[in-house]
Amino acid sequence: MRFDKLYLAGIASVLPEVVETEWAVKEGLLDPDVREASGILSVAVAGDVPAPDMAAAAAAAAVRRSGRAPGEFAALLHSSAHFQGPDGWSAQHYVLRKALDVPIPALEVRQGCLGMLASLELAAHRLVADPSRPAVLLTAADNFGTPMVDRWRASGLFLLADGAAAAVVASDGGFARVLAAGSLSNPEMEEFNRGGEVLFPPPVTVGRPLNLEARRQFWRDQWAQGVLPPMGNLGELVSAVAERTLDEAGVGMDRIRRVVHIGFSRGPLEDTFLEPLGIGADRGVWEFTRRTGHAGAADPVSGLEYLLDTGQVAAGDHVMLIGAAPGAEVTCAVLEITGPHAGR
């Protein structure tokens, strides 16, 4: 979908100190061959810092940089991929109280690693439907350092990192104009992400940790027995939604200076994003994500902030934000940097 008046007015991220993957190998937490193949040098680890507190810190910085007053916000959309706090509790209202403390709707967007990009689309619709308030606050945060996740072995696609990000989406101006954004899904692929897991009782409620790699192995074993896995390819979704969004934005891929992708390991990154987009790692943010790991839904905003803070994109440049999540679904946004970013 093309937008005429949609902007990023302020962004911020909170990434804790990193832990070297070489240390994880020495401690027996990560296989050395996996480390070598992944290309990941370090992973951000938050210790016992609650994810909602990281989200609130990022939100406060993004709001301050945007120059918007709390009364200008129409809603807050909070995203996460892992548990945020007590069961039955509302992390999004905690972040709202800490960041804005105004009586507006606060919603949780459960879209996995696509949380912030999906929220960008939702924010655009909200601002069009009700122009009385010109801003929506997006937040995302995760701390995967719980007994229910092994950040080093949970997936063969990435190493899980902790962190948070926030963005102020506005209809009345900002440092970047959102030219277009959109999503594309292949729901047949949901079975691939489910593997052999039962739906009830939910595995986590009976103490079974998250193990995405075991679900992938389930389909490898099924295939070896002659049972075909669900058909679908994330790279095809990436290529299709990127082409459509670029067309809506009126921008060719040759005009995209940098692509902000999620923090996959090197092989999956090339297969899922770089090759389908026809770009090399130097046009992405590999030099950033290989030092942070995959911080869930926060990746697109933290990657964009990295490019801005290091001066690798500036006014007049076009940037693509793109990510994927189980489902399977891919979301893409095309931005034009229009002015200076109030960075750190």
From TrEMBL:
Residues 108-174 form the Beta-ketoacyl-[acyl-carrier-protein] synthase III N-terminal domain. Residues 246-337 form the Beta-ketoacyl-[acyl-carrier-protein] synthase III C-terminal domain. Keywords: Acyltransferase, Cytoplasm, Transferase. InterPro entries: ACP_syn_III_C, ACP_syn_III_N, Thiolase-like. This is Ketoacyl-ACP synthase III family protein.
